[in-house]
Amino acid sequence: MRDVAVIGVGMTKWGELWEKSLRTIFDETALLAIEDAGVERIDSMVVGCMSSGLFVGQEHLASLLADSLGRIPIPAARVESACSSGGLALRQGFIEVASGLSDVVLVAGVEKMTDVTGCEATYALGTAADQEYEGYHGLTFPGLYAMMAVAHMHQYGTTREQLARVAVKNHENGSKNPLAQFPFKVTVDAVVNSVLVADPLRILDCSPITDGAAAVVLCPLDLARKTGKPFVRIAGTGQATDTIALSSRKDLTWLESTRVAAQKALAMAGRKIDDIHLFEVHDCFTIAEIMITEALGLVGKGRGGPAVEEGLTSMGGKYPVNPSGGLKAKGHPVGATGVAQAVEAVKQLRGEAGERQVKGAKRALTQNMGGTGGSSVVHVFEAE
Amino acid sequence: MRDVAVIGVGMTKWGELWEKSLRTIFDETALLAIEDAGVERIDSMVVGCMSSGLFVGQEHLASLLADSLGRIPIPAARVESACSSGGLALRQGFIEVASGLSDVVLVAGVEKMTDVTGCEATYALGTAADQEYEGYHGLTFPGLYAMMAVAHMHQYGTTREQLARVAVKNHENGSKNPLAQFPFKVTVDAVVNSVLVADPLRILDCSPITDGAAAVVLCPLDLARKTGKPFVRIAGTGQATDTIALSSRKDLTWLESTRVAAQKALAMAGRKIDDIHLFEVHDCFTIAEIMITEALGLVGKGRGGPAVEEGLTSMGGKYPVNPSGGLKAKGHPVGATGVAQAVEAVKQLRGEAGERQVKGAKRALTQNMGGTGGSSVVHVFEAE
User: Fold this and answer.
1) Residues of B designated catalytic
2) Tell me, which fold does domain A137-207+234-330+337-383 have in CATH?
3) Which of A211, A247, B21, B257 is most exposed, with the fewest beta carbons within 10 Å of its own?
4) Which of A54, A131, A132 is opposite residue B54, by nearest beta carbon?
């Protein structure tokens, strides 16, 4: 297997982009990444998107976007793994470059979730749950994560305030990210008094509905060295699955797919969790980030709540989690999220993260998750 | 890149499987392929499916199926390229084994299109066209292919009877395939007098709506040799894109993505088209097969009609096309079709195709297509 580097990244402002179609959002973002990479040639494209079929009535997406970008007849693949579609796209792009089949691969994630005619966003997102065992009974994701939160509070004494602390931290970080959908701070009081969505989760515990895209350009390490430009190596990739129905899990409070994916990615990179300087993780709900810090091994089982309260995962803490603002503040265009995590990792390792820079960061880990953890994709990035 | 072999194949009876859900259809088929391969271990899964989101309200499909098959926590990726999703899955599985990341990869294609609650099949299939440039104006696939047929008839004098000859040939072949949805013969008269769908295409020019799955097991060539069982090598893979909107094409009668994909796959295999002993191609409509034989270079531009009339593409002809019965007789569960083509290629090259065996076949080519040719995936298989 060849070593793989990221030589270009691109991301545009996320939000409710009423005036932009899916292909426009993709094009603008992909062009930024290609410009950043400074390459003319693109051999192949991989696009992560959860549900353009339901959101905008468009499948056959990768060909459409290859055409829109003016790149036909290059090969173009769309991959889907619910909200970890972006992470999966990065992994497939990595494999394609590693294999030697393609040299320069554009990896993008995109989702158009607002101003759509296809169907209601909550229904479309609900198709990441088990339709026969969960969706059929009316369960949607706020409800599923609320059950996980209640179980975590019951089992480990996690408090309502600790959940809020995740939102406060991520909005603090996101307030320094000009591309974030909600680049402002929130207080614990604001979170715990915000509108109830699914007890105990309130609106400020939830990541938003977002239009957006993110893109990176990959190539073999030796080619990256020849460019003379800064680049970042993908040192490890790991992916794992779990039951997508919560009812089939042994433990509602544990994300086994994240544990397995992280162990694989770290093993491939030859690193331990303490070697990592920053983490971009899948905080689709505040409880998710608490459970992810446990599954990654940043803290012991059940200790995610106290950890965020004590500042362990804040900027300046031992394990900075979500310097970008995370899904909570940055937004969550589901197919784009995993690629955006890679964009942040690369910016941090190139020292270009501005006000939210983790000083001296040389190694980063991204964790992208589908559903309630039915799939997880983890990557380890290292500065060269 | 490592050489890659197919060591197991599986396919179940296709049709309107009212009593079986998507996961049941997948499980039964995947288990056949695993049993055929004689392996215990599966390192990873790739699933091709066009639109489980629209058909059955289920995204996050690969994780669901990994769980259903009892294989969590292995990595599982779903890929989509409209009706070439199956071919794309095979290609991604090939790349994963070639890269060295995984040794034993299960590749499956599946689609549940009948007895569904999500939406109407014609709407779901229509999302393989350009939603903004085609779907919005009411175009569906019979209409798009009808325009291609009219253009081909006008430009090259292709006749109504020549179109019918494709259906007659493929049903003749399909009558010998017990797994086909419609394993019976049809006559030219029956085709040209069948119900009009979109002039000049009649119902017997169209592939059907089908529930079904197909699966193959891939591994490195050296591992395949150690099993002591028959196997087939994937000698070449090619994928290409084109504009998905017909209105953006230079020529309505030419499938450029098929030409490019075939050239790439043949070049990788170090073969010419005349080295191939049988072809499984994407006859979603009779006109499609005529255009594909031209794009593959079996005949000159505009000569596809006379070729089928003269028996060039019949069993016993110079270029046997669709010995399995093709999409026309076998059925077309869109995400499964590309993998089913590989299943037929492998059965033929192992000499296990029964009554429809192409005698002495050592090399086969599969061509799987999305939309009206917005994407094409071609593979070359060789017996060892």
Assistant:
1) 83, 332
2) Peroxisomal Thiolase; Chain A, domain 1 (3.40.47)
3) A247
4) A54
